[in-house]
């Protein structure tokens, strides 16, 4: 995909959660260090950033934070990692981004640490960068249709209009697209944010109301790795891919 550089050289990886759904594997290790196909979840994410040419990563930490920090000291490859320390208070996804904002350029990529995906014709960060338009967008989400999602048993998250603007699934109905846990975020999305812990959904709701939340459909495949039962089918899927 020639002709347009990446929208940012920095990504935030959300890695501070308690990993309750991944118990008992998270009784003694943070969820991002759970191994899938011989590699920790956080390294799957970091390797994707390295491959795409994203030079910097900001990672928030809370639960068993020392173990994660120790892991980054051993890893010597790109991207370089800076820590957003939430040891004193877990801030959830939205609060975590707000706390880390002084370390993040405008815009920045943001990704969850429990996703594994296969790229389509282009890597996901290029996919997002090609569609990014800061004049129209506060955030641009990467979504995937149900047919290209493994281990996901939900009813979907979003609808998209012809231009890619996002609306939420209505209760009791199925939506065609699932959020992949990867997005581009502008600092405008973070403006006037609540203090303390809160979900990114608070900011997305405002952006939807203003017509400034967009999404692009991923052309590859995606795995949700949120619980122990998802690990084996994910490993089998990666072996076949």
TrEMBL record:
<dbReference type="InterPro" id="IPR029044">
    <property type="entry name" value="Nucleotide-diphossugar_trans"/>
</dbReference>
<keyword id="KW-0548">Nucleotidyltransferase</keyword>
<dbReference type="InterPro" id="IPR005835">
    <property type="entry name" value="NTP_transferase_dom"/>
</dbReference>
<keyword id="KW-0808">Transferase</keyword>
<dbReference type="InterPro" id="IPR050065">
    <property type="entry name" value="GlmU-like"/>
</dbReference>
<feature type="domain" description="Nucleotidyl transferase">
    <location>
        <begin position="11"/>
        <end position="130"/>
    </location>
</feature>
<dbReference type="Pfam" id="PF00483">
    <property type="entry name" value="NTP_transferase"/>
</dbReference>
<protein>
    <submittedName>
        <fullName>Nucleotidyltransferase family protein</fullName>
    </submittedName>
</protein>
């Amino acid at each position: 995909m020639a002709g347009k550089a990446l929208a940012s050289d920095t990504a935030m990886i959300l890695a501070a959660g308690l990993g309750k759904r991944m118990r008992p594997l998270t009784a003694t290790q943070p969820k991002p260090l759970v191994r899938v196909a011989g590699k920790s979840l956080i390294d799957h994410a970091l390797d994707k950033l390295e491959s795409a040419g994203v030079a910097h990563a900001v990672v928030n930490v809370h639960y068993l934070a020392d173990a994660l920090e120790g892991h980054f000291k051993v890893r010597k490859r790109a991207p370089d990692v800076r820590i957003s320390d939430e040891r004193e208070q877990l801030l959830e996804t939205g609060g975590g981004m707000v706390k880390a904002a002084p370390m993040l350029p405008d815009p920045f990529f943001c990704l969850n640490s429990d996703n594994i995906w296969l790229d389509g014709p282009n890597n996901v960060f290029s996919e997002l960068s090609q569609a990014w338009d800061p004049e129209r967008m506060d955030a641009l989400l990467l979504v995937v249709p149900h047919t290209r999602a493994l281990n996901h048993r939900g009813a979907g998250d979003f609808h998209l209009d012809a231009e890619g603007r996002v609306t939420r699934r209505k209760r009791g109905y199925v939506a065609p697209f699932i959020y992949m846990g990867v997005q581009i975020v502008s600092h405008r999305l973070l403006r006037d944010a609540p203090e303390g812990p809160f979900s990114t959904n608070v900011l997305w709701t405002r952006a939807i109301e203003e017509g400034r939340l967009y999404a692009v459909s991923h052309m590859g495949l995606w795995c949700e790795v949120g619980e122990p039962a998802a690990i084996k089918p994910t490993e089998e899927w990666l072996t076949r891919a």
